[in-house]
Amino acid sequence: MKKMSWIALFLVLILCFVSMYSLYSHMNNKWLVSPPNYVILILSILGLALALLGFKDKSNKSTKVRSWISMALSVVLIFILIGALSFTSMFSGSKELLTTTHSPDKHYTINFYKTDAGAMGSFGVVGELKGPLWFKRVFYYERKTDQVDLEWVDNHTISINDQKVNLLYGETVRRSP
């Protein structure tokens, strides 16, 4: 029981950092290395439970302060994640797998999806580069098309709808007709 407030505080701080990086990576098309939002939500609830258990330790005032900070941060994070999950589930539109391709040396795996935002926006094609575990990065987005014409130029360069993308240098392509 003595270390619950420390564990809760570190867990909640790490989850806040992971959530902020997730937001940054979505906005800037960087590698998404954080787990899905529902996993972060479950861990935030665990952090809240650990913070509540930390209140049982009455050895000094600092444990109580750590538990209050952990509880406040985890409650805020839980509400933000519930809001984000409900918003994305209502307004994300549909995403349908078109094709999966592998580089000639099998180093890269790319999934192409057809997206349709319905009345909320446009349709298009999104290319996601898969990494280990759940890691992924959106590197290609083209609006107002529903097909992809793929051809690997070499082991790290792919031609998508007559647009060459070098995956080795981390290029990102956004096309609008």
Summarize the structure.
It is built from three helices and eight strands. It is α+β, with helices and mostly antiparallel strands.
Task: Give structural attributes.
three-stranded antiparallel sheet, five-stranded mixed sheet, alpha+beta, single chain, 177 residues
Summarize the structure in words.
With 177 residues, this protein is an alpha+beta fold. The chain contains three helices and eight strands. The chain has two domains: 4-91; 94-175, no CATH class. A five-stranded mixed sheet has the order 1-2-3-4-8, with no helix packed on it. A three-stranded antiparallel sheet has the order 5-6-7, with no helix packed on it. Strand 5 and strand 6 (157-160) form a beta hairpin.
